[in-house]
Amino acid sequence: MRTIGVLGGMSWESTQSYYQALNEGVNQALGGLHSASVVLISVDFAKIEALQRAGDWTRAGELLAEAARRLERAGADCLLLATNTMHKVAPAIEAAIGIPLLHIADATAERCQAQGITRVGLLGTRFTMEQAFYKARLQERYGIDVVVPDEAARESVHRIIFEELCRGEIKEASRARYLEIIATLEARGAQAVILGCTEIALLVDQSHTTVTLFDTTALHAAKAVAWSLKT
């Protein structure tokens, strides 16, 4: 079994979901008392969020690249960046390490392709929904068309992530708002909806809607488990 390096804390609420999914995945595969071999660094999200708001992605990339190097030195054989938004700085992180970064958009796109999905809705932070780093990867590498909510809906999705989900607050009114937005994306032709922020699955899951949902946290963790166990 190879060791998975997890760069988390963005937010810690979803990082604990990663840790659980990694260990459950390895145990399901190997049985008995087996669990995942994991090295974890959890950063102070307040510092990263401030850089996001300031648009200082260069400095954010530098901080995460240094944390990634520490994971590599600690024995990680691959890197799992436990956040969608900060994959914006994935190139800076990859340039700083000698181990593979398992990209969250690749894990998601591979599942889309496996299910024949060619047009998806995307929920996430404003950065993920509006900037090109995530959407372009899906479109250019995998031929998947991406639909995002309108301006008002994007504001709702973003606000709920930072003001509620990252703080561990789960509200029924917010779930209802997300489900309304998901239904709108389906009406616009989305065959499925990507939960493109690792906190969203804390609020909405497949039991809440008939629209196919892709939980990026679960897909990312599953890809890491398969990589770790591959011989």
Automatic annotation (TrEMBL):
It holds the Pfam family Asp_Glu_race. It comes from the Bacteria. Belongs to the aspartate/glutamate racemases family. InterPro entries: Asp/Glu/hydantoin_racemase, Asp/Glu_race, Asp_race. Keywords: Isomerase. NCBIfam families: asp_race. It comes from Vreelandella malpeensis. This is Aspartate/glutamate racemase family protein. The keyword Cell membrane does not apply.
